[in-house]
Design goal:
The protein is 36% helix and 17% strand. By secondary structure, it is α/β, with parallel strands linked by helices. It folds into two domains: 102 residues, Enolase-like, domain 1; 260 residues, TIM Barrel. Strands 4, 5, 7, 8, 9, 10, 11, 12, 13 and 14 form a ten-stranded mixed β-sheet that branches. Strands 1-2-3 form a three-stranded antiparallel β-sheet. Helix 5 links the parallel strand 4 and strand 5. Helix 3 packs across helix 10, helix 5 packs across helix 6 and helix 7 runs parallel beside helix 8. It is globular and about 60 Å long. The termini are far apart. The relative contact order is 0.16. Bound molecules: D-gluconic acid (GCO) and magnesium ion (MG). Magnesium ion binds next to loops.
Amino acid sequence: MPRITSARVIVTCPGRNFVTLKIETDQGVYGVGDATLNGRELAVASYLEDHVIPCLIGRDAHRIEDIWQYLYKGAYWRRGPVTMSAIAAVDMALWDIKGKVAGLPVYQLLGGAAREGCMVYGHANGSDVEETIERAHEYLEQGYKAVRLQSGVPGLAATYGVSGERFYYEPAKGSLPEETLWSTSKYMRHVPELFERGREALGWDIHLLHDVHHRLTPIEAGRLGKDLEPYRLFWLEDATPAENQAGFRLIRQHTTTPLAVGEIFNSVWDAKQLIEEQLIDYIRATVVHAGGITHLRRIAGLADLYQVRTGCHGATDLSPVSMAAALNFGLSVPNFGIQEYMRHSAETDEVFPHAYSLSNGLMHPGDKPGLGVDIDEALAAKYAYKRAYLPVNRLEDGTMFNW
Ligand code: GCO
Ligand code: MG
């Protein structure tokens, strides 16, 4: 049995900030876990260093479930993104160790491949509809089966999902939060046009997705879903903030557009009513923010009973360690739906060498024992942490709103 001898937190900024936990054992085998919480990174680093690592030393690394329960129940203060990201990092690292000791990729330990690969969606974003469509074409040419369309809204200087970058969207920047302005009516007028043009230009063989990023009320979301029905979206994401799970009933009463939610969820309790009442179609909770592979499997198990499929968050602020874990999970889980894939920068990929690969719109975690991802610590040490914040959003009259 591999005993945990040491663990450390590695904070690095190869283009953006990442927090990684590395757990070492007396058998020379180590594991890595992602602990990145965008804009609040150092809170998780401290939670791990000051409170979790001292409890890990000497434990049997194979007892993943016991250590999960120990950290969850033992903290007394349950749930929350900081706690659950820290637990997730430990959990990922332990699955990585178990796989390496067994000589098997983690998906084999989870039941083996339930499909050939995980369908992913890429991000097409542009300052206007034409630019977004042009970028979506590039994904089609690369064999993607699904693409998310976001575009600038006429009359708004900036909006969620649109950036100067060609293939990914990186909202965290600045030494203080950037402030943007929002108008629901301008947005609601614009989105149906984006998808009307999108279908005309891209055809019907590609899945199209859209992220509202928590900016509508339930009844507004119902109307947008209805307006988008002719374009047969794969999903409409985060149509309204989801603290009030019952609010999704109102959306459901008005539209058959499939709904996805959950990238900011950290526990099955955030999604219980949404799943049990079949108020959503895709659950977007992911490995790093929802307690690791161990807890995500529990969420997926509940979702499967209600024909809700997975659609894990996979933005650039989730490190390649999370991506590797999500792919091992996604390949094995029966009710996989889709995986978000935003490419990382070349510097990030260099710091985190990985075995996963993309072919014809499907991603595979690769067959290296463990998660199939590593961290180059010497290289990581060259990129010092840079404080960065997600933007904040106001209505045009100055009222604080959801970003
Ligand atoms: C997505 C998300 C991201 C988040 C980001 C916050 O659908 O990929 O909405 O763009 O805003 O991950 O850290
Ligand atoms: Mg989103």
